[in-house]
Each structure stands twice: as C-alpha cells, then as structure tokens.
Amino acid sequence: MKVFFNHLFDYNFYCNKKLIEECNKLNTVSEKSSVLFSHILNGHHLWNSRILSKSSEFEFWQVHPIADWADMHYENQRTSFDIVTNANDFEKRIDYENTEGRLFTNTIQEMLFQIINHSTHHRAQIAMDFRDNGLVPINMDYAFYKR
Q1: Which domains are seen in the chain, by residue range?
Q2: Which residues of the chain have pLDDT under 70?
Q3: Which of 23, 65, 120, 131 holds its CA 20 to 30 A away from the CA of 73?
Q4: Residue of 71, 75, 41 lying closest to 58 (CA atoms)
Q5: The predicted structure's pLDDT at residue 127
Q6: What's the whole-model pTM score?
Q7: In whole angstroms, what is the distance from residue 10 CA to residue 2 CA?
C-alpha cells in the first residue's frame, strides 16, 4: 500500500508542479483557475491535517497568491509522504469534523485517495478554464506521465 500511495503522490506532485510552472509563465491567470488551484492546495492541506488530527491553517476556498503555490504544494506533498511512510495501518479509522461541523469517520486509505481524486477533479476544471480562455491545457493524463 505504501508503494501504491507513494506512486500516486508522485503523479499528483508532477501534475500540480507542471500546472504551477505553466501558470507562472502566463501574464495573467484567470480568477477561476486561481480559485480552483488554491482550493486544490487547501484541500490537500486540510485532509493531511485531518489525518494528523491537527487544525487546518487554511480555509477551504481561501485564495493564495501564485507566488506561494509552489511552496504550499511542496509542503503538502512532504506531509503526505510522511503520512504514508509512517502509516502502519491504512485501514485505521479517523474521526474528523467537516467544514460544516458535521462528524465523519474515514480510513487513512480513503482520506489519502480523496486528496488524489480531489486534485484530479479540479485540475480537469482548470484545463477546461484554460481552453475557455484560449489556452492549450497541459496534458496530465496518467499515460503521458508514465511515458
């Protein structure tokens, strides 16, 4: 399981890093893409925090300056790798409160997968926003990553 999650987080890191690099090349990044990528970073941080039973430093829809994205992304990734490395039981259930104050329980495995799936979902929305703004989206398909 550790190898599987390390591999998924490598892929996630690669995709987010490519997107950050592409956004840094643009004269302006649309508000929608900026909001969505900030949300990816916030969500990743939030789920890491839940797994570690810590308070999140960010609001779910808090927007961050593009200049901060790379450092935030690196820190999220480092924390996720630490979680995976130190996990002894991926089926361990963790209780947490969602952003609306409701109580839930998920396994570490489910929470880690949520980080990956959430990021992929919103990167697809950013790709559509790029296209809507006359930009060519970055190809982040898994097959291209593996080639």
Answers
A1: 2-146 (1.20.120.450)
A2: none
A3: 131
A4: 41
A5: 98
A6: 0.95
A7: 12
